[in-house]
Design a protein that fits this description.
The protein is an alpha+beta fold. 29% of the residues lie in helices and 25% in strands.
Length: 348
């Protein structure tokens, strides 16, 4: 067992014996996303490094504390990428935090989410046991896939120490175009294009303009650009980075993330809005009460998450069946409740 794993293992066993809560942290770039941050700090940043990477196999395995920038640099050197385009939210972002948060960027609706690319994980559970789930191939699961369950768990189910991810080649060509139109027309256009054989890899509507990224072969991108029209965006990469990292004013203040039916008409609510993923992801910057936002999303056939701001208010609102499932999973993997108490739920 590696020295860094031994240290983490000892800390977890001590915490379990004393029923002492732990807050798992590496870079801390996602600390803003929480109902409450409680427990003694368990720093996993020292457990870092790429364990295995074979470009021809499209698989990378690395320790949880490995900087995300280091992962992406290694992949770029072989013309590959993390297809779910994870946001960093700061220079200290790590691979473990990327998976634990489960956040995906502009390409998510077209390539898949973090969970879709997790092949296997190594985890310390609530008893300090060093466990491995999954592996390094896509079809290796018999029964419940615990490895993918870790994506989006925010350190509430165990300490992720190692991750194996499927990676993909970078597209041969990309182009970004912008079209001036109303919000309703943009929602209609995004949904129409989603049903056509177009190489769309990102969409974003804000401030009266729909921005679209096309990715694929040079011939396919050129043909799609001619069909869609619009004005070419000179530095498309910079624009999509600003959306992924939420550096624009539209993402400022109290921010809500609504996952709803993509065909939902424009939302009648105050505050700046950004629409992604063919209309299914709506970002709303507003100080409206939490309950009002939860109901707004529910009426639109989806759910809302208080993404940033309004400290002390609920991050999410689960119906009784979903809450019961979350509670059972927590009890199975962390029976003493030492990992990230109240990080996501007021209930546990």
């Amino acid at each position: 067992m590696e020295p860094s794993i031994s240290e983490l293992n000892e800390r977890v066993r001590e915490a379990a014996a004393r029923k002492t809560p732990l807050r798992i942290r590496a870079g801390g770039s996602k600390d803003f996303y929480a109902y409450k941050l409680e427990g003694d700090l368990l720093d996993v940043s020292r457990h870092r490094g790429i364990v295995d990477y074979e470009p021809s196999e499209l698989v990378m395995t690395a320790r949880a504390g490995t900087p995300l920038a280091e992962i992406e640099e290694a992949l770029a050197g072989s013309g590959q990428m993390l297809a779910f385009e994870p946001p960093h939210f700061g220079p200290r972002a790590t691979l473990g935090g990327c998976v634990a948060a489960g956040f995906s960027g502009p390409r998510r609706a077209y390539a898949g989410s973090v969970r879709d690319f997790v092949l296997g994980v190594r985890v310390l559970n609530g008893a300090g046991e060093d466990l491995r789930y999954g592996g390094q191939v896509m079809k290796n699961v018999a029964g419940f896939d615990v490895s993918r369950l870790m994506a989006g768990s925010f350190g509430t189910l165990g300490v992720i120490t190692e991750v194996s991810l499927k990676v993909l080649p970078r597209p041969e060509a990309e182009a970004t175009v912008r079209l001036e139109m109303t919000e309703a027309n943009a929602i209609d256009a995004m949904n129409r294009w989603a049903g056509q054989p177009l190489p769309v890899s990102a969409t974003c509507y804000m401030a009266g303009a729909l921005t679209v990224r096309l990715s694929g072969s040079q011939l396919g991108v050129s043909a799609a650009q001619a069909k869609i029209g619009g004005t070419s965006v000179g530095d498309g990469n910079a624009f999509w980075c600003s959306i992924r990292e939420q550096t624009l004013d539209a993402f400022g203040g109290s921010l809500w993330r609504l996952s709803i039916k993509p065909t939902t008409p424009p939302l009648a609510t105050a505050g700046a809005q950004v629409i992604e993923w063919n209309g299914s992801l709506r970002w709303v910057a507003t100080d409206l009460p939490s309950q009002q936002m939860f109901e707004l999303a529910r009426n639109a056939g989806g759910h809302a998450i208080r993404f940033r701001g309004q400290d002390g208010s609920a991050v999410m609102q689960l119906d009784p069946p979903a809450l019961a499932l979350h509670t059972r999973l927590k009890a199975a993997l962390d029976p003493d409740g030492i990992f990230g108490p109240h990080r996501l739920h007021a209930e546990f």
